[in-house]
Write a structure and sequence with these properties.
By secondary structure, the chain is of the alpha+beta class. Helix content is 37%, strand content 16%. It has two domains: 67-190 and 351-418, D-Maltodextrin-Binding Protein, domain 2 (3-Layer(aba) Sandwich), CATH 3.40.190.10; 194-348, Periplasmic binding protein-like II (D-Maltodextrin-Binding Protein, domain 2), CATH 3.40.190. It contains 19 helices and 22 strands. It has a five-stranded mixed beta sheet, sandwiched between helices. Strands 11-14-10-15 form a four-stranded mixed beta sheet. The protein is globular and about 65 Å long. The protein starts with a helix and ends with a strand. Residues 1-73 have low confidence and may be disordered.
């Protein structure tokens, strides 16, 4: 079917769903930002539309930075907030407007950044133009803390904020805290991944999502054959990390992780069956054409338009498939399969919806007031009932009317999910592990055993080297339980 493969159609849909913003960084760079729209095509005329062209910033940006911080209506202090989350834009624009219309001393400038977000924050800090507040960057939290990009929130956290978000119950070493220092507080969480499937195709063919991974090959093959070029069995967003999207999560449920917590070393060998599984799918011609390089949003579009039977991702798809790319057919959500059909480990869920404070902000008290507002019971209740994320705290879980959260309810309530201890963040020579494993999945890819051997060698050599240098610490959990990964006794070793 021509529409399945039409790049023009995809581009037109993307043009309708996003608009481009630019923000200059004191003559250093001009960074593009893509902001997603909801299906209502409402104009985004609120604070998130703020942006400065590169040409403007090349003049006197550095000299006027202090003035712009104070620039707005009257004597209000401008607090600039950056985020890389576009799925909640309609709601966040609303709460920002409410704040700006009622607060007598602060004005929020809310900016969405989706391209090179973490690097952009680093560059902005280096140029003295960092936002006052920015959405959490859990994968680089330690690096940001060590490099003076963010600062601890401990001096600012109020009793009310602590109650609503259960701060002490949600401190995760290396993720949002270092020792007793808290750098951001998760006010929500993203579920672990699920199988998202075209219910109409499954019902018409009399299929069910299997509990065992290998059974998916036959099901995907049946769907492709029935589709006869109109639709295909499964899609992998190859350019945006299939492992990160759901293959890694299936492995976790099977008791497999890339890091051996008991012995404190990397071990990628458990992923071999997953690489073989993907190759079997390709051999059966059950994979959507172009999956080796397709990005996540085009993959979502193909699923939403009925051209794919099986798609894998986490709870963010609840709003994506209802607002950003509204599905044209009925879709369902099911648990991920495991290697043998049984659950042997917890599936990682991801704390989110938190904010960090710039270490160089000139207005820390005002910056905290904004963070506290975003994490208040009132704002969070609307956010959670809007289906933008799942509750992190028991307190908010009890305050939310779960009947209002829409398709987010399909991703809630799993009793096998947990926050995993952060793996030591090393920088090995060669490919990133997710890229290397995905390349080994492909029919023309490198040898699977050799790929795993190279990854084990590269990552463990980097771990040994960076531990000796004092850049990271080796994490060891002798009483590690894969079903309760964050409950063991954690040791951080310098040698």
């Amino acid at each position: 079917m021509d529409s399945v493969h039409s790049a023009g159609k995809e581009e037109e849909k993307m043009r309708k769903s996003k608009r481009l913003m630019s923000l200059g960084l004191a003559g250093l760079m001009a960074a593009s930002m893509m902001v997603g729209c909801s299906s209502s095509d409402k104009k985004e005329t609120t604070a998130a539309s703020a942006g400065t062209t590169a040409a403007d910033t090349q003049t006197t940006a550095a000299a006027t930075q202090a003035e712009t911080k104070k620039e707005s209506s009257g004597d209000k202090t401008k607090i600039t907030v950056w985020t890389n989350n576009r799925h909640d834009l309609e709601y966040m624009n609303k709460v920002v407007d409410e704040f700006n219309n009622t607060n007598d001393h602060i004005e929020i400038e809310y900016v969405v950044q989706t391209e090179n977000y973490e690097n952009l924050i680093t560059m902005a800090t280096s140029s003295g133009q960092a936002p006052d507040v920015f959405g959490s960057v859990s994968t680089k939290m330690v690096e940001f803390a060590n490099n003076g990009i963010t600062q601890p929130l401990n001096p600012y956290i109020t009793d009310e904020y602590r109650k609503v978000n259960e701060v002490e119950q949600h401190m995760y070493e290396g993720l949002n805290s270092i020792g007793e220092d808290i750098y951001w507080v998760p006010c929500g969480k993203r579920s672990g991944a699920r199988i998202i499937y075209n219910k109409e195709i499954f019902d018409n063919l009399g299929l069910e999502v299997p509990a065992k991974l290998s059974d998916m090959v036959d099901i995907a093959k049946q769907i492709t054959e029935a589709g006869n070029g109109e639709y295909y069995g499964i899609i992998f967003p190859g350019a945006s990390g299939p492992f990160e999207r759901w293959l890694e999560h299936s492995a976790e449920k099977s008791g497999i992780t890339r890091y051996d917590y008991v012995n404190g070393k990397f071990d990628f060998s458990g992923y071999k069956p997953y690489l073989e599984f993907v190759r079997e799918l390709y051999a059966a011609n059950a994979v959507f054409p172009g999956s080796s390089s397709i990005k996540i949003d085009p993959a979502r579009v193909q699923f939403a338009e009925g051209h794919v039977g099986i798609h894998g991702n986490a709870s963010q798809e609840a709003t994506v498939l209802t607002e950003q790319f509204p599905a044209t057919m009925e879709w369902g959500v099911a648990d991920l399969p495991t290697l043998d059909g049984t659950i042997k480990g917890a599936q990682a869920c991801t704390p989110n919806n938190g904010y960090m404070m710039s270490a160089i902000t000139k207005h820390p008290e005002e910056a905290w007031e904004v963070i506290e507002y975003f994490g208040s019971e009132e704002v969070l209740k609307g956010y959670l009932e809007g289906g933008y994320t799942l509750p992190m705290s028991k307190y908010m879980e009890e305050k939310v009317d779960m009947s209002k959260i829409g398709r987010m309810a399909d991703f809630a309530g799993a009793d096998y999910e947990a926050v995993y201890p952060e793996v030591p963040a090393v920088t090995p020579e060669g490919e990133d592990w997710r890229d290397a494993l995905w390349n080994a999945c492909l029919p023309e890819g490198p040898n699977i055993d050799e790929t795993i051997e190279k990854l084990n060698k590269a990552y463990n050599e980097a771990l040994d080297k960076e531990t000796k240098m004092g850049k990271v610490k080796r994490l060891v959990i002798k009483d590690y339980d894969p079903l309760h990964p964050n409950e063991g006794t954690m040791e951080y070793l310098s040698e």
